[in-house]
Amino acid sequence: MTGKSASILILVALAIAAMLLGSLVGCECAASYSSAYLSEATMCKSVDAQNRPVDKTDVFSASDPIIYCSVKLSNAPDDTEVKAVWIIVQGEFQGQSLTNYTVDEASVTAGGRKYASFYLSQTKGFPTGDWAVKLFLDGKEQVAVPFKVQ
């Protein structure tokens, strides 16, 4: 047997051994890819019928009844989850100091190219301070949108 033939035979044997070993240990490989992405994350006082932002701002009053966050979803498969987590980064409510306090979270399932909106409402006043809405796409944090409540 020539050196070249022996090398080929060894490579084939190694490939077969790797396949057998993979099947013995239950190795399973999978890959997934999504081209979905979020853009135009905006804080606002209201949204239109297509969930686009109206009255954009990053400063709200504690007495505002509702705070909105609007975000554009693009290139998304139909079962894409967009999640918003409302957080008081550093604030105060009725004399109590709040740091990195999660107030609420909500999610929507959508696809294609469209705007999604999330809102937080109150009846006793929002805690004052620095806030953020963290936006997730299929469980992975994409952006945090900061805002203030005065």
Outline the secondary-structure elements:
Elements: H1 3-24, E1 37-47, E2 53-56, E3 59-60, E4 66-93, E5 96-121, E6 128-137, E7 140-149
Parallel strand pairs: 3-7
Antiparallel strand pairs: 1-2, 1-4, 4-5, 4-6, 6-7
Structural description of this entry:
By secondary structure, the chain is mainly beta. It folds into 2 domains: 1-30; 37-149, Immunoglobulin-like (Sandwich). Helix content is 15%, strand content 61%. It contains 1 helix and 7 strands; from the N terminus they run H-E-E-E-E-E-E-E. Strands 1, 2, 3, 4, 5, 6 and 7 form a 7-stranded mixed sheet that branches. A hairpin with a 2-residue loop joins strand 4 and strand 5 (96-121). The longest helix has 22 residues, at 3-24.
Please outline the major beta sheet: 7 strands, mixed
In total, the number of strands is 7
Which architecture name of the largest domain does CATH use? Sandwich
- Total of DSSP H or I helical runs spanning 4+ residues: 1
**Beta strand %:** over 45%
Q: How would you name the CATH homologous superfamily of the largest domain?
A: Immunoglobulins
Q: Could you tell me the mean pLDDT?
A: 85
State the distance separating the first and last CA atoms: 84 Å
Helicity range: 10-25%
CATH topology of the largest domain: Immunoglobulin-like
- Name of the level-1 CATH class of the largest domain: Mainly Beta
N-to-C series of helices and strands: HEEEEEEE
What would you call the structural class?
A: mainly beta
Number of domains: 2
Radius of gyration: 25 Å
Q: Rough shape?
A: globular
